[in-house]
Amino acid sequence: MNGGSSDLESTRLDGNAAAGILSEIFSCDVTAARATCVHCGASDKVGALLLYAHEMGAVLRCPGCESVVLRIARTPTDVWLDATGAKCVVIAVS
What we know:
Blueprint: H1 5-11, E1 12-14, H2 19-23, E2 34-37, E3 43-45, E4 50-54, E5 57-61, E6 68-74, E7 79-82, E8 86-90
C-alpha cells in the first residue's frame, strides 16, 4: 500500500460497519451514540463516522475534518479502545 488517497478510499466504509467490533466492547448499539470530534467540534452519530477497517481493528474518522475520533485494536487477548479524538461520546440509555 503506497498510502495514497485512493488506497484509503478503497477501504473506507461508514461507521455503521463498526457495529461488530464495537459490540465486543459495549453491550448496547454504540453506532447510535453521539461522538463529538475534539478537532473541529462536529457532533454526529458514531454510525456517521468514516470507518477504515482491517484485520487488527478499526479507525473511525470525522466526516467533517477527517481527524481520527476513535481507534479500536484487537489482540489475541484484548480489545483496545482509544477515544482521545472524541471530546465525548454520549450513549443513550433506556
